[in-house]
Amino acid sequence: SSLVNTPKDQLAVIYACQRYCHSKKFPKVVSGTTPTSLIMLMFQVLYKYEICNEDGFALWNDDEEEQPGRVDALVQTTTFMAVLFEPDEVEVLDEEDEEEGEELDAPRETC
Prior knowledge:
- By secondary structure, this protein is mainly α.
- The protein is 57% helix and 7% strand.
- It has six helices and two strands, in the order H-E-E-H-H-H-H-H.
- A two-stranded antiparallel ribbon has the order 1-2.
- Helix 1 runs antiparallel to helix 2, helix 1 packs across helix 3 and helix 5 crosses helix 6.
- The longest helix has 17 residues.
- It is globular, with a radius of gyration of 16 Å.
């Protein structure tokens, strides 16, 4: 469940973020110590606070309607979309970075 009920309404919220970032020329902001794109941060907030869910982001990702800033938005949110829709692959990449001999079979805590 999300704050914005239907995927179509979520799509409108996501496009509003895209239009705003496009109007500001897709600025970078500092989140913690790392500069990140504003649209990436906005997408993370929309998802974290359950304003939009996977269905809304999937609709946006698959929508082929030409919108101002679409290409920039897609490029700048590639990592977010990969984590959202391919978490198993991202987890495998993380495990490959760990040194051998660590307890990879230990149960992980999930939120």
